[in-house]
């Protein structure tokens, strides 16, 4: 782990997430869930929903629920529950993590061309140094190339739109 001496893993994760968000020109919002220790109970469902209510999103992207990683499944459940409790008022899209390794049975409905923005994606992934990106990024890139072949681009991200979502086109990435 590349957290540095004396730093707790959660401090490291927050710092890395902030750096990745800076690269992506995004603003981080934290739900208090820790890697390997995601909690699904009434209090956490309510807390997560309140975060989304404050944010008032038009579109939310979350992990596909059929996944080998427990935290990915938990995040998907928290997001889906918030979407239902909030009256399905934002478009809910699912994304794959690494098809075949974590994500299973993922058949996309939408694609976004990431050919020009792949270097920024890579930099954001590598900002999570404690997650050993050298170990996982190659698979991510293979999936992006495969989704690109599937959709007619050099590289693409793939998504599934949740049925009953208000239709929202995925944003163009620049």
Task: Please describe what this structure looks like.
- This protein is of the alpha+beta class and 174 residues long.
- It has a single domain (9-161), classed as LmbE-like (Rossmann fold, 3-Layer(aba) Sandwich).
- The chain has helices at residues 9-24, 42-55, 70-85, 118-126, 133-151, and strands at 59-63, 91-95, 110-113, 156-161.
- It has a 4-stranded mixed beta sheet with strand order 1-2-4-3, with helices on one face.
- Helix 3 (70-85) links the parallel strand 1 (59-63) and strand 2.
- The longest helix has 19 residues, at 133-151.
- The radius of gyration is 16 Å and the shape is globular.
- The protein starts with 8 loop residues before the first helix and ends in a 13-residue tail after the last strand.
Give me the oligomer status: single chain
What is the CATH third-level topology name? Rossmann fold
Overall spatial form: globular
What would CATH call the homologous superfamily? LmbE-like
The SSE order reads HHEHEEHHE
Compute the number of strand runs. 4
Helix percent band: 40-55%
**How would a crystallographer describe the biggest sheet?**
4 strands, mixed
Q: What is the compact description of this entry?
A:
The protein has 174 residues and is α+β, with helices and mostly antiparallel strands. Helix 3 links the parallel strand 1 and strand 2.
